[in-house]
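Run log, item B.
One chain of 184 residues. Sequence copied directly from the ordering sheet:
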Amino acid sequence: MDLLILMIRGLFIGRFQPPHWGHVWAVRDILKEVDELIIVIGSAQFNYIIKDPFTIGERIWMLREALREGGVDLSRVIIVPIPNIENNAAWFGHLRSYVPPFQVAYTGNPFVAMLLKEAGIEVKQQSLYDRQKYNSTRIRELIIKGDSEWEKLVPASVVKIIKEINGVERLKIIALGEAEPHKW
C-alpha cells in the first residue's frame, strides 16, 4: 500500500525593498513549519521610486543571496515576482494564477490576511523581529541620509549588491523628488 505523503507548502509575501535580516529570520522560522515556501515578491512592476527603488531582478538577486547567507536551503524556496493589480476583490485569483498551490500563508499585514482568509486560506502571523529596527522603509531612509547603520540591518550580500548597482546613489537621487516616468 502506498502511503500518501502530504507536503505542506506555505506562502510569504513582501516587497523586499530591500531584503533585511528580519525577512531572512522569518523565512527560516516558517521553514520549520512547512516543507516548501513560496516567497512572493509583490509590486514587481515598480522600480526607481522612493517606496520601490529596486527592480524585480535586483530584489530576486538580493533575496536569494540574503537567504543563502542566512543558511536557508534554497531547494525548499520558490521565489515568484507578482505585479500589483488595483482590484482588491480579484487579488486572490491574480495571486493564485502566479503561484503553485499552497495550504497556509504567513503575513504581518492585516489587509493581506483579510483577503487570504476571505479566500479560505489559513493565515499565520510570521515572526516579527524588532520591526522598528528591521524595516525596509527605515533602511531606505538610513541609506538616503548617508547613515551606514543600514549596513548592519541587511546581510552583507545585500550591502554588496546595493553598492554594486549604485543603489545608494539611486536612492539619494530619487529622494530629490524629481523622478518621473521617462517620456520619449
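Observations after the first pass:
- The chain has a mean pLDDT of 92.
- Helices lie at 21-30, 56-69, 91-96, 110-118, 136-145, 150-153, 156-164, 167-174.
Flagged for discussion on Thursday.
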